[in-house]
Amino acid sequence: MVLFGKQKKLNSSSAPKALGNDSVLRIIGDRGSGKTAYLASLAYWPNASPESPVKSITPIGEEAQELINQARDILEQGLQLEPTDLNADINEVKDYNLSITLKDRFSWLQGSSKLAQLNISCKDYAGEFFSDLLYKKGDQKLEDYLGDCCLARGLLMLVDGTSHRKDNEFAMGMEKLLMEIERSDMETNHRRIALVLSKCEQSELWVNRHRPKKVASRFPKLSAQLETWSQSSAGTVEYFTTSAFGVLGQQYPEPNSMRLKRSRHGTTSVIKKPTLWRPFGLVSPIYWLCTGKRHSELDRD
After folding, report:
1. Burial per residue of 2-24, b for 16 or more beta-carbon CB atoms within 10 angstroms, e otherwise
2. What residues in the chain have per-residue pLDDT under 70?
3. What is the torsional sign of CA 11, 14, 154, 54?
4. What is the pLDDT of residue 32?
């Protein structure tokens, strides 16, 4: 995920200036963590609440339009997305450009005249990238992915909130990734890492959706690894909860998804009622990674 400012511009010459110019982000996560569903739901932005701070999310270019097509033609039909191609080299990984604009009453930074418009370019790495950190050495493709990832000053790590039995593997993978990033740094950069717990439409996660650290406590080793890294002054970590599908009902909510299988790897689901599809929490981690500030309105249902 790359945040671009002056490097790329919208067609409109009157577009407001982007926040966080020159920030570079990447999205990583295990196979099945929901990275592609996250991006497709973000691009499609279905049934947005009128109270949402988000004014619009606009795809830029053909590849981003593919996300819209995937959401409309696949997710809305209750089908699964195709896994991201593991064999693609880093130059073949699709780059999805999206523009996120906040509504006027939410969009002015305190003491600034800049509108909050986040222009992001999202690379969807194959999930095996993370496990390969543990089990592969000297693989050129892995080295290329690591080199690309090391460009990032911000990382969005997506973790299936029901995959807590893989906590030890996630912690070891993160440790290896942080070591590689540190070794590759030409200079010390203060990075941000957003640990984003996905699939929070599941009942045991939804109840704590407004307490992301509580959900993250399901992954004690991974959380401890990130906190140790943060305390070393290498960067900052923050926690978020998201759901690509959302829930049905308010007083007695239930997941807007049909479970296909569940194992130590997490939960695999498809959407249950597309007409009531409303994601939760997708923009909040992006805003924090770009600005270094939490936007409380983006954390609301």
Report:
1. bbbbeeeebeeeeeeebbbeebb
2. 1-24, 82-88, 105-115, 184-189
3. negative
4. 84
3-state helix, strand, coil in the chain (%, to 5): 35, 25, 40
Q: Name the residue with tokens 């089908």.
A: 79
Q: Are 241 and 215 in contact (CB under 8 A)?
A: yes
Structure tokens at 172: 């070891």
Contact of 75 with 274, CB cutoff 8 Å? yes
Calpha distance 230→239 (Å, rounded): 13
Question: In a 3-state reduction of DSSP, which class is residue 143?
Answer: helix
CB atoms near residue 62 (< 10 Å): 9
Say if CB 231 and CB 163 are below 8 A apart. no
Name the E strands within 125-190.
154-160
- In one letter, which amino acid is 145? Y
pLDDT tens-digit map of 5-37: 333 333 333 333 333 433 567 888 888 888 888
How many degrees, rounded to 5, is the angle at CA 124 between CA 118 and CA 127? 140
The pair phi, psi for residue 205, each rounded to 5°, is -100, -40
60 vs 15: CA distance, rounded Å? 14
Residues in the chain: 301
Q: Give dist(CA 104, CA 29) in Å, integer.
A: 33
Q: Cα separation of 57 and 94, whole Å? A: 18
d(CA 63, CA 40): 11
Whole-angstrom distance, CA of residue 38 vs CA of residue 45: 10
As a whole number of angstroms, the distance between CA 59 and CA 97 comes to 6
**Residues 224 and 175 sit within 8 Å (Cβ to Cβ):** no
Best CA proximity match to 257, nearest among 299, 201, 196: 201
Q: Nearest CA to 152 among 28, 5, 285, 56?
A: 28
Q: Which two tokens stand for residue 13?
A: 């010459």
Record the pTM: 0.86
